[in-house]
Amino acid sequence: MVPTALEKQQGFVALFDGKTTKGWRGFRRKAMPRNGWKVVDGTLMHDPEGPQCDKAGDIITNDTFENFELRLEWKLSPGGNSGVKYLIDEARVSSGHGGLGFEMQILDDDKHPDAKKGIGGNRTVGALYDLIPPAKAMAKAPGEWNEARLLVSGNHIEHWLNGEKVVAFERDSQMLRALINTSKYKDNRGFGQSARGHILLQDHGDPVWYRNIRVRRLPGGKVAGGR
Description:
Elements: H1 5-10, E1 13-14, E2 24-26, E3 37-40, E4 43-46, E5 59-61, E6 68-76, E7 81-88, E8 102-107, E9 146-153, E10 156-161, E11 164-170, H2 174-180, E12 198-201, E13 208-217
Antiparallel strand pairs: 1-13, 2-5, 3-4, 4-13, 5-12, 6-9, 6-13, 7-8, 7-12, 9-10, 10-11
């Protein structure tokens, strides 16, 4: 299992051991949901066919993170939708009762209708959801594994997908505030201002698999180099 020997030297630790859900719990819950999320063949899977899985909901890390680098792999079912959210404050709740915060979108752009909504592709896979579209289309076909990388260093944030940087922005910037004011988050006072929070995996009602989830904490203001 990850992290690799090199990643361990770089300070990475596993957020998922491939066998248990240790280190995770339901959003605004003390424990993992009883249904919906399960460990399957070394992956952390959301299974919409399970009993009462419609009540599973999002899951979050027990720990909170401020300056960090997250690496993971994900694959999605055809027509599926999920997301990796970060800097999540449990005091903030979306209209769907899930976690509210920045999201790296995970989506089947070809078959899910949300890809055509928003502005200029800002709801497509890899996007900063409803705010910034990805610079290029890098996702593999549904059923194939994708590698995601997320950097949060002070105000600077980057989304990477399959080895390419697809989004970069400054959290506390006039540009981002302007984008928020024209987005679905415009009425959420203080949206995007959290500098520290949980990492969240989204239950959007579709099958999704995550594996090789690891993270390292970064010194404030230092951005890890590209690959």
